[in-house]
Description:
Blueprint: H1 3-23, E1 31-34, E2 41-44, H2 48-52, H3 65-70, H4 84-96, H5 111-124, H6 126-135, H7 137-144, H8 148-154, H9 156-159, E3 166-169, H10 176-179, E4 190-194, H11 210-224, E5 231-237, H12 243-247, H13 261-278, E6 283-286, H14 291-301, E7 307-309, H15 310-329, E8 342-345, H16 349-365, H17 370-376, E9 380-384, E10 387-388, H18 407-412, H19 421-428, E11 432-435, H20 445-451, E12 460-463, H21 475-482, E13 487-490, E14 497-498, E15 504-505, E16 507-509, H22 516-526, H23 533-546, H24 549-553, H25 564-581, E17 587-588, E18 591-592, H26 593-599
Parallel strand pairs: 3-5, 4-5, 4-6, 6-7, 8-9, 8-11, 11-12, 12-13, 13-16
Antiparallel strand pairs: 1-2, 9-10, 14-15, 17-18
The site of magnesium ion has 4 residues, from helix 15.
Amino acid sequence: MSNFTNQMRLSSSLIKRLKRSLTTPMVMQTRSFTTTEGHRPSMVHKRSLDILHDPWFNKGTAFSMTERDRLDLRGLLPPNVMSSEQQIERFMADLKRLEVQARDGPSDPYALAKWRILNRLHDRNETMYYKVLIANIEEYAPIVYTPTVGLVCQNYSGLFRRPRGMYFSAEDRGEMMSMVYNWPADQVDMIVVTDGSRILGLGDLGVQGIGIAIGKLDLYVAAAGINPQRVLPVMIDVGTNNEKLLKDPLYLGLQEHRLEGEEYISVIDEFMEAVFTRWPHVIVQFEDFQSKWAFKLLQRYRDTYRMFNDDVQGTAGVAIAGLLGAVRAQGRPMIDFPKQKIVVAGAGSAGIGVLNAARKTMARMLGNNESAFDSARSQFWVVDAKGLITEERENIDPDAQPFARKVNEASRQGLREGASLVEVVQQVKPDVLLGLSAVGGLFSKEVLEALKGSTSTRPAIFAMSNPTKNAECTPEEAFSIVGDNIIFASGSPFKDVDFGNGLIGHCNQGNNMYLFPGIGLGTLLSGSRIISDGMLQAAAECLAAYMTEEEVLKGFIYPSISSIRDITKEVAAAVVREAIEEDLAEGYREMDARELCKLTQLRVCPCM
Ligand SMILES: NC(=O)c1ccc[n+]([C@@H]2O[C@H](COP(=O)([O-])OP(=O)(O)OC[C@H]3O[C@@H](n4cnc5c(N)ncnc54)[C@H](O)[C@@H]3O)[C@@H](O)[C@H]2O)c1
Ligand SMILES: O=C(O)C[C@H](O)C(=O)O
Ligand SMILES: [Mg+2]
């Protein structure tokens, strides 16, 4: 559809909406609809979320599309309209499933039960919910966030009780500009949006992916202190390619294959235009989009909107901080980073994001010129589902292309196109083995045995895939096979390993949660128009510098989650400083750019 036609559609829906609000005062309006039992019309003086939160009137997913339109509910419920019989079936199936699938690998067996209790509190009393979460962040972050949030998404059709957030579906094309006004808050600071196409390492979960947006925003409130009334989780339902969900009669999302190409982009464009029209200062975090869209959408929007992609950019910053920590843990200065040999398993949105950032960081340390950038490339070996990526790879993904090994260079090392991970580790003897493959157990006994040949005095293993059962290896496997001296980090939380001799092998959590809340908060407070590479780099450097020399030498390369509020504050301050330095900051509320400058200790400040 041309931009013009699109605009016409958008503006006609907006005009409809405006007319409706002019002719009928929202609050006092009386509307009728049929109750769940059927026939008698019910009169209601409420609208929007007030209806969904009222047990006398709420029909949940059984509200028909006409009722959703008339009661300003469009977008506040998952798109699939259910019959009351289906609702009961879904509830009963969930009740019976209580103990089954309540566990994600070796994690807490009661995780899902705890999530249900916390979720009920979230629905009843947000202030109390966040107080409980903040006071017990170490215990409950793994429940409301990774790894349990993965289990929640997998079971979402059953767990769904009260809606939270907004749903924009392929069926809502042309309506989004109007729908955004169904959200009751006049001010929204943070949106986390997903299309559900790659939820953690669990694949395409369709509409059920809304859970990840809710979990991330919980951390925005708990770690960054964002007002819970100003966060908005969003699910863009463009269908699903998950065959199981397509056949499930109780699935809450659109039961059609995913939109592709221009059709897909036009939905996301319409969503972005709608939310930035209603809330011009909002920040949109893209989360768990499959790689093929993650990069394209980032390129499409990053210079126009206040947005970032957490999996590409947040993960990259967290990985850089960890990689620099691993260099320091060897007793070497950070500036030795460009000498590290790094094997990366996984060339998706996260893997490529990390590779690009690591290469740039090395290049900066080597003189920040073209030849430095070029030579940094040779420090990386990238293995994906088809093995080692070389220039011989057919139909190579353009994002992976810059990291393809030259064929003669590979053969000098005894490697070839498609070489297995174990062969690569054997030949390269890397300092770092980093996994973002979503393949649980990929760092097998053989791979870890091969890493014993590392030329590093202290090899580092980053098993960053989530949730727990997708981790490339466990810390027990890593420490017991490679040795007590290694550095270990995983994306999902694991317990430290007790060596039984009074010594402990520390398991770091290398998760983007250490950066995204600070990136969002810093952007909000600075009022920066966009989120620049420099702001992201400042966030990563701040996290890298957070750990003391003594801590890194003991193998602690990331802070404990109990200090997440402090880290977030530091990261946010670094982001604000950088935004000011780059002359991007426009200020926040009464704190204009000039006032912000006064607050910082910058020597050079462009607005002074
Ligand atoms: N720790 C964190 O903060 C963090 C952040 C982002 C993503 N992740 C995790 O990283 C994982 C990957 O995310 P993504 O968005 O890049 O996914 P993706 O699906 O885009 O990429 C997965 C990549 O792994 C490769 N792969 C598959 N099987 C492989 C194998 N046997 N050997 C080597 N490579 C293999 C694929 O070819 C692909 O390149 C997910 O589990 C996600 O949860 C963790
Ligand atoms: O969600 C997480 O825990 C980290 C990351 O964003 C992921 O997709 O795995
Ligand atoms: Mg993610």
